[in-house]
């Protein structure tokens, strides 16, 4: 058999549960009323550098107690939705950070002009000499390579010998093959009624060959170097 429950303990537990539930309901109503009483404000303005009128772009504005924020545009303007009493942290690279608190004025729009001071770090002047002495400069200047690697490769690839070898290794194009075939056909048709001649038996050819040897034509390179 299940144990019997004392009616007094049961009544006490029900009363405790009722009071706890009433407390939770009152606390939620109070919190909701407090949220309704808070006014959402349109916070806008311009962030400038010091006393100038030039806007600072990409400045971070962060609501510390809400975890949200925005960034200024390229002209330094911004717009942010906040509540009364919010704390805004303003920061940018190269500038000192600032804190701004939204006042309680029962207004819906709040516009400000925020001045940021540059965060400068000054160092003493340091002179770094390029050369230790005049003799060192003279030695390094005379040892300097004036011609670059690209210029060397360009001169090598455009030399007469390389171009000649490339031309000799290049195959004939379709147009050159057609011209060669047509010239051979024309020569065959023109000489079909003639007896073929042999240059070894041509006295005029031998005379021209002897004159070319005397002139030294065969000693000259095909492409003389400059």
Descriptive account of the structure:
The chain is an alpha+beta fold. It is built from six helices and seven strands; from the N terminus they run αβββββββααααα. The protein has two domains: 37-116, Sandwich (Immunoglobulin-like), CATH 2.60.40.1120; 134-219, no CATH class. The strands form two sheets. It has a four-stranded antiparallel sheet, with no helix packed on it. A three-stranded mixed sheet has the order 4-1-7, with no helix packed on it. Strand 2 and strand 3 form a beta hairpin. It is elongated, with a radius of gyration of 49 Å. It starts with 6 loop residues before the first helix and ends in an 11-residue tail after the last helix.
Count of alpha/pi helices: 6
> What is the helix/strand order?
HEEEEEEEHHHHH
Percentage of residues in helical conformation: 25-40%
Indicate the structural class. Answer: alpha+beta
**Please, what is the average pLDDT?**
78
- The separation of the N and C termini measures 124 Å
The percent range for strand residues is 15-25%
With strands numbered from the N-terminus, the spatial order across the biggest sheet is 3-2-5-6
**What is Rg?**
49 Å
Q: What keywords describe this structure?
A:
7 strands, 6 helices, four-stranded antiparallel β-sheet, 226 residues, Immunoglobulin-like, elongated, three-stranded mixed β-sheet, alpha+beta
Which helices and strands, and how do they pair?
Blueprint: H1 7-37, E1 40-49, E2 60-63, E3 68-71, E4 77-83, E5 87-91, E6 98-101, E7 109-116, H2 134-142, H3 149-157, H4 160-169, H5 174-190, H6 203-215
Parallel strand pairs: 1-7
Antiparallel strand pairs: 1-4, 2-3, 2-5, 5-6
